[in-house]
Amino acid sequence: MLNLRVAAVNHLPLFVTIPLLTSRSFNCIVNSVYPLKMNYKSLLPLILLLSCTLWNADAQSYQDPQHHSCLKCHSNQSYSFKNEITGKMVKRLMNPYYILDTIAISAAVHKQFDCTDCHSGEYKAYPHKSELKLQPLSSCLDCHGGDASYAKYKFEEIEREFKKSVHYKVYGENFTCSKCHSQHTYVATARTSSNVLDIVDYNNKMCLSCHNDMKKYKLVSGHDNPKLIVIHDWLPNQELHFRHVRCIECHTEVKDSLMVSHNILSKDRAVKKCAECHSANSKLKASLYKYQNLQKRSENGTISSILTNSSYTIGTHQSPILKLVSILIFLALLSGIIIHSLFRIFKK
Amino acid sequence: METTDKIYFYPLWLRIWHGFNALGILILILTGISMQSSMDTPIIGFNLAVNLHNIAGIAVILCYILFFTGNLITGNGKFYRIKKKGFFRNLIKQGSYYAWGMFHGENYPFPLSEKRKFNPLQKYSYVLVMYLAVPVVIVTGIALLFPELIIDKAWGISGVFMTAILHAAMGFFISIFLIIHLYIASVGKSPLENYKSIITGWHHI
């Protein structure tokens, strides 16, 4: 697994890489690149460079939370500390929101970073100073904004779109990216997976983490969360829809320049007309099925067979031939009846 | 009541069935078209269309059970029996009467009596609708209400897709039947005669 970390590190610019390389992962690189009997002299320039930088020797892998200075508590249900006033050791339950899923972290987009790359270095002191909580954390744009290497993700445009969204209107700047995209565990499933159901499931869980959670929902909106099953009562085959399309398919404004529009609309502006998806020019082609990784599947025939026969259309209109046939039959019937009635009137 | 040229054609249970079935099918067709074309008119909003379609669908299933058992228990079922003898000849005879004969003063080829309630064309279209199209629409409709029952894929095509196509196609044929049914009903002693019969039960010979 260390190789994973190394591989991820290799893609980063050197000034980012060096502080990230832990002693452990560095050994790993050395051992894998250079056989054991190798003359280490040839490594000298690199070692020199590394020792000149402030590299984080304390950083440890998320793979081994028991020995990670942060995760040994933050992946546990409880923690202990010495109460300086009573002089006794105290064991307490960890705040459930501070317990981290180490497996998810080690697979997530930020896995190559250590905790103190984003959180204050002062957290290394334990017990932590209480005022540390009040320190502002970096926002996503602090790292991702204005950087050419992230240009394809269009973070700035996402921010502009987000500011039009109902989330921003309700909660303002307090509605951070992390409300939906956990910096700890986020995976860019939509860009990587070729399985539609996985993409849908991962994406909808982001919405459900608040919209199906009374406490989190109320924190932002100030009122109880509406029951999703009840408010989507009008939607036919609710369960099937929820499994096969993302909430955002109907609840955002599609924007061609972004993979996912972050302008989450208020519920009265959500898509409610079947034909917007269930028609030959389905909205889904501009949203869920615009990912290249999904379009690639069409080369294998899976998606193309769905889209070319306009399977999202309701009823017979799913098939253009049947639609034409049904219109022709209807017109023939109508003209037959008209001619027959005319004969009945005039032939009396 | 004067009975010389009248026959009590439609018993009460049949008229009740016919009335409810007609109402249900009409609602299904209107809401079906509204959903298929995704019209979100102020008259039938989409929510309402879906709910009405579901309720009317279940009502029509109940109606169908009444129709089916009624035809089993009473003698009404015999009017729907298919006769091989002269099958096509009789159909053509009735068809040519509607297309030609009725405008040239020909006599009705299959005069109705207590033994013959329907003309051949009428009978076989009723058989097709009531014993093929409606059952198919009911089965596919139930399947679409519970899509988890539908097999995922058959011959590489989505099961839900095929079920939806079949449901809508059969619904379309029932709509076509309804239009013909309503129109042909006006071909009687007087244009309103047949409509009156299905309400009162008495049919003028």
Can you tell me about this structure?
The complex is a heterodimer of chains A (348) and B (205). With 348 residues, chain A is mostly helical. Chain A has helices spanning 2-10, 14-20, 23-33, 44-52, 71-74, 102-107, 115-118, 140-144, 155-162, 166-171, 189-192, 196-211, 214-221, 228-231, 238-244, 247-251, 292-299, 302-308, 320-346, and strands spanning 78-82, 89-93. Chain A folds into four domains: 1-57, no CATH class; 63-137, no CATH class; 138-293, no CATH class; 317-341. Chain A has 19 helices and two strands. Chain A has a two-stranded antiparallel sheet. In chain A, helix 1 (2-10) packs across helix 3 and helix 17 packs across helix 18 (302-308). Chain A is elongated and about 115 Å long. Chain B is mainly alpha-helical. Chain B has helices at residues 12-36, 46-73, 87-99, 120-145, 159-184, 193-200, and strands spanning 6-8, 153-154, 157-158, 202-204. The longest helix of chain B has 28 residues, at 46-73. Chain A binds chain B through residues 233-237, 239-240, 272-276, 278-279, 305-306, 309, 311, 314-319, 322, 326, 329-330, 333, 337, 340-341, 343-344, 347, and chain B through 32, 35-38, 40, 46-47, 50-51, 98, 102-103, 144, 147-148, 156-158, 160-161, 164-165, 167-169, 171-172, 176, 179-180, 183, 187.
